[in-house]
Design a protein that fits this description.
Length: 84
Amino acid sequence: MAATERAPRQLSSSSCTVVKLDGQPYVLYRQGVTCAWAKDWARRLAASHGRAKPGGWSCTSGAKYRGNAWCERGQKHFGWDDGS
């Protein structure tokens, strides 16, 4: 792999795998951030429909931050989806 290519994301496999947003459970992904931090920001992003983002992070969503989203900053990542 060339040095300029991005390495595949290796996400944390821990007991922190679910976040509830509007009462619905979603699969939570994270790397390089704590479980509490990732859940807190997932809730903030979902509630604000993407208007409140962590400073310096790049975030994207195909569902207006309701069903899924992904944010990254360097080697740190977090996101959620409905698992389907």
